[in-house]
Each structure stands twice: as C-alpha cells, then as structure tokens.
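queue> pop job 88
queue> type: inverse folding (structure -> sequence)
queue> payload:
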C-alpha cells in the first residue's frame, strides 16, 4: 500500500540519521580522540583509578594514544559501532535493541556534555547537538509508538529547534561565533571577513525563523524543507572547506566524518517535511496501537 511505503520511507530517514550519527562518532573514537579528556584528565580521576591498581604511567601513557583515557575512548567506539548496527536492525518486538539505542543516546549526551565543558560552558554548544542526541530516541519512539504518533513528531520538533537555535545563536553572535564558521564561509564563498559576518548574521536569523515556522501550518513544510537543505549544506561545508587533492586521502579521513555524524541535522527536517506534506487523506489523525492517542501529522 502507498501509505505503508510512505511510512517505511519516513522510518528510513530516522534509521539512516541514527546509523550515520553513530558511525561518524565511532570513526572519531577509533581514528581521532573523543573529547572526554576535559572530563577525565583530573587528579580526582587518577586518585580513583589508583584504587584499582592503575599507575600514573598507565594513566597518562608513554606514547601517542596509549594512556588510560585514550584506550578507553577507543573501546567506547565499539559501543557506538554496536549502536550504529542497532539503528538498522532494531524492531518494535525487540525491547533489548530499543534499550540499546536509548543507551546510545545517553552516550551522545555524555559526549556532548564533554564538548560543552571544553567550550567553556557555552550553551549553544550543547543545544545545537540536540538532533544528534535525540535521533536514537526518535527512532525508538517511531518503532514503539509509531512513525506518525504525537510523541515521535513532538520529539522531532524539539530536536529540530535545538539544532537550528543552537546554530543560529552562534551564527548571529549571541555567543562568540566560532572561527570555523568564518573560515568555512570565506573559503567556500570566496568572500572577505565582513561579508562572511553579514552572511552568518542572515542565516543565523533564518535559523530562528524556521524554529518558529514549524509551528505555523501554512509555512511549516517550507521551514522543514529549508532546514533539511541548510542542515545538509552546513554538514557538507566541513569537507568542502577542508578537503584538498594535496592531502593524504584528499583529507577525507579528517573531514568526511564531520558530515556523516551530522546526518540528523538534515534527515530530521526531511522526515518532518515529508510527514507534513502528506495528502489530506494521509495526514488525518490516526489512532496509534496500544495508546489510543491520535498521531499529529497536520
């Protein structure tokens, strides 16, 4: 049935979003260094580990990547890889798989908190990762409640708002705009600093416009579509600005994962766009099995 195929496609967006997010962060854990150091490189951490026989040499390491923090960062990468697989295989009948995805969401929250601390507690740093932190929860809601259930849709809207409000707060200058924003803008658009500043201010303002727009029926589809397009552009901006033929592997090992782990930034808006774009016959409230509550699609 066409309706069932549409629902499968909507679910696929969430599956891909969760899979790519986990896979991208798994690459960071295996190949680079996850940002846990800011939470763990403390005397208190070492004092605690001493109780288990961990020496100072084992804690800090004697070379690159062989300290306690680096080793455990790599091991945590396996958990991200497992969560990536669960994103593709999870079914409603398997509570174990859904619990695993929720645990994966907790891992993303901890990782985001580490980045938040590293950024000196700048609120947008935590908020703009809302899409990544919530994508596993969205997938679990879609499997358990239904792809069109109000819990799933509301959670997707929260993730949407967090992603673009956090990005907008940086771009518009409510918090110091990251230097990478200016660097990517000047390199890709071939403009000077002042032009890049104006551009970022405009797109930052639009970020807040679409956060409001998804609540207005007449423009919510357009807002979601813009969010999907802009989320994809900002994700691709990393490799577009950083990759070069002169680098080993063209710099793909350094920048490509930056796009992959940001997949929720454009796939969550894409899910909302196609959900809301359904014909009236498909967008009418539907009862959801086991809850008795209507889905919100219009």
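queue> result:
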């Amino acid at each position: 049935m066409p309706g069932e195929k549409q629902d499968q496609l909507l679910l696929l967006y969430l599956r891909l979003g969760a899979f790519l997010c986990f896979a991208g962060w798994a690459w960071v854990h295996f190949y680079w260094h996850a940002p846990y150091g800011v939470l763990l490189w403390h005397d208190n951490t070492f004092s605690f580990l001493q109780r288990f026989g961990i020496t100072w040499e084992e804690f800090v390491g004697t070379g690159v990547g062989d300290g306690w923090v680096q080793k455990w960062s790599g091991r945590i990468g396996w958990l991200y890889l497992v969560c990536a697989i669960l994103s593709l295989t999870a079914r409603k009948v398997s509570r174990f798989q859904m619990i695993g995805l929720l645990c994966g969401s907790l891992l993303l929250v901890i990782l985001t908190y580490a980045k938040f601390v590293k950024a000196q507690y700048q609120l947008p740093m935590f908020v703009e990762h809302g899409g990544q932190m919530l994508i596993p929860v969205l997938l679990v809601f879609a499997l358990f409640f239904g792809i069109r259930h109000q819990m799933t849709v509301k959670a997707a809207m929260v993730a949407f708002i967090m992603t673009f409000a956090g990005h907008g707060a940086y771009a518009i200058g409510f918090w110091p705009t990251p230097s990478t924003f200016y660097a990517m803008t000047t390199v890709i658009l071939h403009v000077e600093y002042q032009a890049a500043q104006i551009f970022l201010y405009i797109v930052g303002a639009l970020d807040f416009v679409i956060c409001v727009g998804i609540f207005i029926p007449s423009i919510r589809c357009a807002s979601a579509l813009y969010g999907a397009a802009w989320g994809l552009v900002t994700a691709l901006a990393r490799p577009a600005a950083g990759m070069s033929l002169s680098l080993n592997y063209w710099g793909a090992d350094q920048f490509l994962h930056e796009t992959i782990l940001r997949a929720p930034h454009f796939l969550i808006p894409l899910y909302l766009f196609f959900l809301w774009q359904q014909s009236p016959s498909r967008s009418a409230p539907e009862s959801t099995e086991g809850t008795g509550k209507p889905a919100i699609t219009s």
